[in-house]
Design a protein that fits this description.
Elements: E1 2-8, H1 16-22, E2 35-43, E3 46-54, H2 58-66, E4 76-79, E5 93-96
Parallel strand pairs: 1-4, 4-5
Antiparallel strand pairs: 1-2, 2-3
Amino acid sequence: MLYNDDTTARILKFTAEARAEALPPGAKQERTGVFTSGVVAETTNGLIALFKTGLCHAGEHLAEVLDQRQGCGPPIQMSDALARNRPADHPPRPLPASPMGDASS
């Protein structure tokens, strides 16, 4: 099970060169937002938490992590319903977060 989300962040000194290098492939040069993303994985050995700050959204950061996986099926992903939380090239099994639980019961 993977949980991911992001929040806005501020980097005090972010040069134009560093910004250009930090853009994910295919992103528009006009992108101005900076985010801190968190990914928490539940494993048989315990929790693993990763945090990264940069121009990428949570789904783009999660895609970087999933690029490193080998021989595994798609993980179960838990996040809010924002499209930017989904990793583009890695279709996980999404479970939308709901603070209300299952409304059908």
